[in-house]
Here is the input.
Amino acid sequence: MAEHPAYPVGLRLAGRRVVVLGGGQVAQRRLPALIAAGADIVLVSPEATASVEAMADAGEITWQRRRYEDGDLADAWYALIATSDHDANTRASAEAERHRVWCVRSDDADAATAWTPATGHSAGVTVAVLTTSARGRDPRHTAAIRDAVVEGLRDGTLVAPHHRTRTPGVALVGGGPGDPDLITVRGRRLLAEADVVIADRLGPRDLLAELPPHVEVIDAAKIPYGRFMAQEAINNALLEHAKQGKSVVRLKGGDPYVFGRGMEEVQALAEAGVPCTVVPGISSSISVPGAAGIPVTHRGVAHEFTVVSGHVAPDDERSLVDWASLARLTGTLVVLMGVDKIGRIAETLVAHGKSPDTPVALVQEGTTAAQRRVDATLATVAETVRAQDVKPPAVIVIGEVVTVGPGI
Ligand SMILES: C[S@@+](CC[C@H](N)C(=O)[O-])C[C@H]1O[C@@H](n2cnc3c(N)ncnc32)[C@H](O)[C@@H]1O
Here is the structure.
């Protein structure tokens, strides 16, 4: 056949018969996409891998346990020919040709009438990469191009702004604990598409440096209002920019709903009729201990973990935390915003029955280059924090899990 380029097309296979010959590794790799496309899949093969068998058991494909026979492709729209028997594959592709069924062949790209592109997905788009001719086929190269494009779209290094679907509004994005690699793929993409970013002090601040020059970056901590007006001022800034038709990202540390006042911002936007989407983030309450080698649960040690705010002291009338009950729990206690009050917190836990020898770890600036871990016990933690000059932001872990790891 002359070396014409393949003609790229997207097949809409929902409800249409697709015949797969051979139940080995090739079928195992290709079947999930055919299932996702809603195809009516008939697998013809005496054997199948365990994963393919599981697809048949789950009713995702119909499996006929036998060898290929002439006539199998008669009613197919599309065929994947991938048996280990070259002669059977040749007979099957001849049948496909007779019935004008497009077919892919795992053993002979030249004899195939269709090729499977290397595919990937990002934000509602399928990226499919094909080599131009059979002679130039290099599956690793096409896969590498696919990976580069999909990764670029996901992490925002390849910016392809939406034109029709891009709606102005606010995205409340949980940025994770600080390491720029620990934001979600969706968060990173929205950041890359933003016109305005309003960022907190905590979170992946390094990502802000990568934004294109036209993006307006606003430091939430520096919005000029009185201390107690800060949240209202942030809400106003979000509304003001969104109402100008801009795409606004509110970049927050960790997860927006873990001591992040995320819902207050969602409510303010809803009241003003501004569309808002919330993107979860990796909370420091779990990831920062993990980064310092502390699991919040461990088999045989802790079957629960409780995350509390320590921003007000236990005897403060504004405190909503029942420290007496927490002292009775056997699991892990994770305290955020607790560095200033840790002395009073430790005293209260001990006063309500927790052992003064209970291990405590403070992890400061977790997941960043400045991360440090300081260990103590409930009896010594107040003095240790002073002596070691532990500063916020820090996550405090109280419980036996502190000592189970090899340490980092
Ligand atoms: C206002 S809360 C926000 C929590 C955030 N929404 C989350 O899910 O991680 C701020 C507190 O989170 C903790 N924190 C956040 N990032 C941290 C980090 N990288 N290292 C240590 N503590 C961190 C500290 O206890 C800090 O005082």
Summary: Residues 195 and 215 are 5 Å apart (CA to CA). The radius of gyration is 29 Å. The chain has a mean pLDDT of 92.
